[in-house]
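Q: Given only this backbone (253 positions), what sequence would you predict?
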């Protein structure tokens, strides 16, 4: 039986679901990591307190037991709910096969335009094309990462703004740099079209920790790591230029 290829709207819906999945994984990872440190500290201090209190005081012993039980319950929740849920995306499998960079880039641009840029009146200006390079990696995953970079830039740009995608080869890598002017209000303005989840856009408006990107960009980071590349995201400052950069390995000419 012949199969039909998914429509553009179905593909964009799939891309959005992938972004949401990896953002969920990233948030759960942060929760798991950031909760374990204080829980370990509480557990350790419980032993310190036990040595200091009167062993004959039943109320104090119940308090210590309650602290330990609470810590154990929280650790069990992390292991049975958070860590189990993360198993779906803990490892990012990639189907490595050489593919032309230009084809992947053009498809990502087209999808980003249809997903949001056209509705916002945002122009995507691709420079350095055609590059003629061949990327050694998973074309689907790389395309997802670039699409997300472009859509996020459109989300964070004012109406009728211009996003610049600069494509360049650097040694053994191809650099995909998405430059735009950050307009923080655009991320949460109900009067303009959106594509990414409201939760993701709101969190992206908040100050980011040093070396950490907005949660919604987790997919880009994971794709870069899986390919031995690198992803960088400058903190957003209202009215200031911002750049998202993805570096991926290319095959030698």
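A: Predicted residues:
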């Amino acid at each position: 039986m012949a199969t039909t290829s998914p429509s553009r709207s179905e593909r964009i819906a799939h891309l959005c679901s992938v972004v949401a999945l990896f953002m969920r994984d990233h948030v759960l990872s942060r929760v798991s990591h950031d909760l374990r440190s204080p829980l370990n500290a509480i557990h350790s201090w419980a032993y310190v307190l036990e040595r200091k209190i009167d062993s004959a005081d039943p109320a104090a012993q119940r308090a210590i037991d309650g602290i330990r039980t609470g810590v154990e319950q929280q650790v069990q929740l992390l292991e049975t709910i958070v860590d189990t849920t993360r198993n779906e995306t803990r490892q990012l499998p990639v189907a490595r096969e050489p593919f032309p960079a230009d084809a992947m880039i053009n498809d990502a641009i087209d999808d980003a335009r249809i997903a949001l840029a056209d509705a916002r009146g945002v122009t995507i200006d691709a420079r350095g094309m055609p590059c003629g390079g061949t990327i050694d990696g998973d074309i689907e995953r790389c395309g997802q990462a670039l699409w997300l970079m472009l859509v996020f830039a459109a989300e964070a740009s004012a109406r009728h703004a211009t996003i610049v995608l600069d494509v360049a080869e650097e040694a053994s890598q191809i650099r995909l740099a998405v430059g735009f002017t950050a307009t923080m209000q655009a991320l949460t303005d109900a009067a303009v079209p959106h594509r990414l989840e409201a939760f993701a856009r709101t969190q992206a408006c908040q100050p980011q920790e040093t070396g950490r990107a907005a949660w919604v960009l987790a997919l880009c980071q994971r794709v870069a790591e899986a390919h031995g590349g690198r992803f960088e995201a400058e903190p957003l400052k209202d009215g200031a230029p911002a750049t998202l950069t993805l570096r991926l390995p290319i095959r030698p000419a």
